[in-house]
Amino acid sequence: MLSNDPQFYNVNGVRLAVFDRPGTGPPILFVHATGFHAHCWNQIVARIPGRRCIAVDMRGHGLSSKPDPPYYWNSFGEDVAALAKLLDLHGVTGAGHSMGGHSLVVAAALAPGIFSDLLLIDPVILPRIAYMNRRWTEHFARKRRNRWSTPDEMFDRFKDRPPFRDWDVAVLRDYCHYGLVPASDGDGYALACPPEIEGAIYEASGLDDANLYGKFELVGVPVTVMRSATPLKIEPVMDMAASPTAPDLATHFPRGHDMTTPHSHFIPMEDPQLIAELLSSTQA
Prior knowledge:
With 284 residues, the protein is α/β, with parallel strands linked by helices. It contains 9 helices and 11 strands.
């Protein structure tokens, strides 16, 4: 499991909370999805004993700095690259879910030599055409309930509702327990990723990615693109559990490999054992 005591590092004008579980062999760097946090990887880390595992709360999330919007997605990748350099990491396996996978691609393009391989878990890299004339639209995440009396209240409310009812129970408990922070007014808890920040991140998706596909050729390490087999549908309501990842994404990397699963977009939450087995196979 990851430690509850973070180390803090200043990169690109923000303070990032980093959780480093000591171990041997090539490290694994975990990068979470929008609205999530480092401890969402707890149950995967617990299934990879002895390996050094590093997880970060991205800007706007968890215990890290929460600057005012906008939150452009390239900034997250720039943060990951800067953090990896600061930690003097080399030969790292990168594991990123959703926005975290997108961030790893940007980081690997910016900092060749840090990563030995990447596992991109439904990385929300859209088909190339989707980035053309993409416009800002308000995201419904801004309307998320922000205040809770306890993490247990949040867990009880979510456990029987989609998509959370399909999650591993321990992952859901970690999501709720570490996804809340004491409210600033002392009355209960608030989301560690405030709704206005989560919404701003979704709203900026794709707005600065016109040259994203040009970065793929700079990523020379093996890249596994793991995707949900459920395609994304926008109408009548966007299905957040479906895969927004371009079906041909792996073909754009020099050493890309495509892998589909019957899970939803929330693959690490539903099947931490599967992700742990894949990452364990990268042990040198």
